[in-house]
Amino acid sequence: TALVLNENVGVPNKELEAAKVKIAKLDAANRELGNQVVDLKGKTENFAALQGDVNRLNLQVTELEGQKKELKEGLEKLRKDMAP
């Protein structure tokens, strides 16, 4: 005798199909979320790199402001020394 197994035993066909559709939708949503995570990681890395650039530029600005102050002081001293 042959034993025939039926996947649908105890589960109506409509419920099984509905479950398959729901699983497919959840799989698609999961893939979309995975893509968003990858995108956000990339954006985070870009932001960190840009923030590093901003920090370096801020340091350069601070250094240049200090040099500017020194040059102004030197110029004032020269003007005083050259005054009659």
TrEMBL record:
Key words of the record: Coiled coil
Residue ranges the record marks as coiled coil: 16-81
Keyword Coiled coil among UniProt keywords: yes
Protein name stated in the entry: Uncharacterized protein
Source organism of the structure: Trifolium medium
Lineage of the organism: Eukaryota, Viridiplantae, Streptophyta, Embryophyta, Tracheophyta
